[in-house]
Design goal:
By secondary structure, the protein is an alpha/beta fold. The chain is built from 20 helices and 19 strands. The structure holds nicotinamide-adenine-dinucleotide.
């Protein structure tokens, strides 16, 4: 690693129970900062980049060293202030205050553009903190795997609970139920993807989690990917079961597995738009349909059809303008096929890659051909190798003159918001000892605290999803850096689990303290109108008071470090969000802080959704005594 022209040795957080700072409350942020930059964890540690484009842990290597030096000298009643990856001050506070307060990438709204941000970054004045990069609680790909598992699980509970699998069109239609869900739907009543076929595209950094997340939910996953090296990597990492040599073989395997109720994931090397056209031609409707090709980027991400992958790469290099046109055109066809399969009964959702927006733009810019040749549902006698185009599934034809990609709902309003109404969200923890046995012990503690079978041997359906994840994660997730685990827990359960972990530390059942934190993508910690707060019931998508209140509440309650960021997930100008991390060091003081913080943090999600008018959140507030400041 470069450090002012000098090679910086690869970082690895200290392990074991010996402190190099004055207490665990400062040792923990130091180890987690170093862990974020461990080459096993970070994407480009040389440049301090942890993940998500240019999400950094510290502004420069000098800043990294300065933060570490400050943490080493910090007293039990002092607080370090970090401004966009740089230590800027130490304050006398008190023992229950956070040890570190962080603000990353914040800009005055009128100046909040990438151009201005990059200009200021080039002047050395700021850095991009993403969500968990600049707040020192990134845990590698386990986070996206669990998030995808959670989305597929919520989908299964919503559409398939209480119904037999085996494909078919047994799922209750999306349109009948409407997108505005947060309210009436029962949660956790045991639905899985067993006997269901999930079709998707893209096996990249994030999309590569889809096959394993689907099989962990007991489903069949068929994924189209144009780049064979991505397919090989996912098989090597055991995120994908097998690769088919042809679309015929892929579909035969997928349908067999669906009939048998087997959990199998299959990749086929082809363009995702063409796979969907092939399904339409054969009159095969998947149960679930989504996409995680890199459609957010029309030039350096998405790959157009109608040419080989090698030819597409050459076109990207030699004629970017034509590439962009072809890319737009394919996306419009791709979305037209998604809309057609949705019309035929597939549960279809957008997975945050902006394919809807680009398909719409494609038609507006005149890149997509709105005329159709001879599309007829069922496909008839057309030859194999179908594309949306040669089937005539052009945007206007598939949808009439009203080509509206946004008839496909986004994943947050559709599946995640009902969980947010319960104060549910990502709850992650890391063993500061570095010993995987400590995580195994905490896994057992989760299963003991929230068992899926009660004392008299009866199933506890609403815990089955959580327990299946914990068991499978223990078997299948390889740790990156310090051993860590993540699961989703709601209001009440987070505090309960935090206290159990603190007891494990106090009793010496784990060999060093545990830190508990979360992604900034949480129920009451983010304002992001294109993602987490898309389509709020009261129209409050862009209201950003909530993440600020969240950070203030976590500070008041005594989290160990608290952060506010701008731009994570969706880019500069599009989001404001907050995070917290708290140390369970086994002391009674830590127990009191854990109780406060892990109650207040998810309470923010309940408040936020009660305020927006979600009945489910109101019911949760009533049932669990969350004080909504009613007179
Ligand atoms: N929850 C969210 O909101 C969320 C989370 C993660 C990622 N994303 C989005 O999902 C997308 C994927 O993320 P990633 O990190 O996996 O990206 P990536 O660039 O690592 O991988 C994308 C993959 O898609 C493949 N691909 C591109 N066009 C294709 C096509 N037409 N047919 C088949 N394969 C094609 C590429 O070969 C590549 O392997 C991005 O747009 C990202 O912004 C959204």
């Amino acid at each position: 690693m470069q450090h002012q022209g000098i090679l910086h040795p690869p970082l690895r957080a200290p392990r074991g129970a010996r402190l190099s700072c004055k207490s665990w409350l400062t040792e923990a942020p130091m180890r987690m900062l170093m862990n974020n930059l461990d080459p096993e964890v970070a994407e480009r540690p040389d440049e301090l980049i942890v993940y998500g484009g240019s999400g950094k842990a510290a502004r420069t290597w000098e800043d990294f060293e300065r933060i570490v030096a400050c943490l080493k000298r910090l007293e039990a009643d002092e607080t370090l202030l970090v401004q966009s990856g740089r230590a800027v001050g130490v304050l006398k506070t008190h023992a229950d205050a956070p040890r570190v307060l962080i603000s990353n990438s914040m800009l005055v709204p009128k100046w909040a553009t990438w151009e201005e941000f990059r200009r200021l970054e080039a002047m050395g004045l700021t850095m991009f903190g993403q969500m968990t990069a600049g707040s020192w609680i990134y845990i590698g790909t386990q986070g996206i795997l669990q998030g995808t598992y959670e989305t597929f699980g919520a989908l299964a509970r919503k559409h398939f609970a209480g119904r037999e699998g085996q494909g078919g069109k047994g799922a209750e239609g999306q349109r009948d139920r409407g997108i505005e869900t947060g309210n009436a739907l029962p949660l956790h009543d045991g639905g899985t993807l067993r006997g269901r076929l999930v079709v998707t595209g893209g096996l990249g950094g994030m999309g590569g989690a889809q096959p394993l997340a689907a099989t962990m939910n007991e489903g069949v996953c068929l994924c189209a990917e144009v780049d064979p090296s991505r397919i090989e990597k996912r098989i090597r990492d055991r995120y994908l079961d097998k690769a088919a040599r042809s679309v015929d073989e892929a579909l035969a395997w997928a349908l067999d597995a669906r009939r048998a109720g087997a959990a199998v994931s299959i990749a086929v090397e082809m363009n995702a738009a063409d796979l969907l056209a092939e399904l339409i031609r054969r009159d095969l409707t998947p149960d679930v349909l989504t996409d995680q090709t890199s459609a957010h980027d029309v030039l350096n991400g998405y790959v157009p059809n109608g040419m080989s992958y090698a030819a597409a790469l050459a076109l990207r290099r030699d004629d970017p303008e034509r590439y962009i046109r072809e890319s737009y055109r394919t996306m419009a066809d791709h979305v037209a096929c998604m809309l057609e399969l949705q019309r035929r009964g597939a549960i279809t959702f957008d997975y945050g890659n902006n394919i809807r927006g680009h398909a719409k733009e494609a038609v507006e810019k005149g890149f997509a051909d709105p005329r159709a040749a001879d599309f007829r549902p069922g496909g008839g006698s057309r030859s194999s190798g179908a594309t949306a185009r040669n089937l005539g599934i052009a945007p206007a034809e598939a949808c009439g003159s009203d080509f509206d990609p946004f008839r496909i709902p986004g994943f947050v309003p559709e599946y995640i918001r009902p969980l947010f109404c319960e104060g549910q969200g990502p709850f992650r923890w890391v063993a500061l000892s570095g010993d995987p046995k400590d995580i195994a012990r905490t896994d057992r503690a989760v299963l003991e605290t929230f068992p899926d079978v009660d004392a008299s041997g009866r199933r506890v359906p609403h815990r089955e999803h959580l327990c299946r994840w914990i068991r499978m994660a223990g078997e299948r997730v390889a740790f990156q850096g310090l051993p860590a685990r993540i699961c989703w827990l709601g209001y009440g359960d987070r505090a309960k689990m935090g206290l159990v972990f603190n007891d494990l530390v106090a009793r010496g059942e784990v060999s060093a303290p545990i830190v508990i934190g979360r992604d900034h993508l949480d129920c009451g910690s983010v304002a992001s109108p294109n993602r987490e707060t898309e389509g709020m019931k009261d129209g409050s998508d862009a209201i950003a008071d909530w993440p600020i209140l969240n950070a203030l509440a976590n500070t008041a309650c005594g989290a160990t470090w608290v952060s506010v960021h701008h731009g994570g997930g969706v880019g500069i100008g599009y989001s404001i969000h907050a995070g917290q991390v708290i140390v369970a060091d086994g002391t009674p003081e830590a127990a009191r802080r854990l109780q406060r913080v892990l109650t207040a943090d998810p309470a923010m999600g309940v408040f936020r959704h009660v305020d927006a008018g979600y009945e489910r959140a109101e019911a949760v507030a009533r049932e669990r005594g969350v004080d909504g400041a009613r007179a």
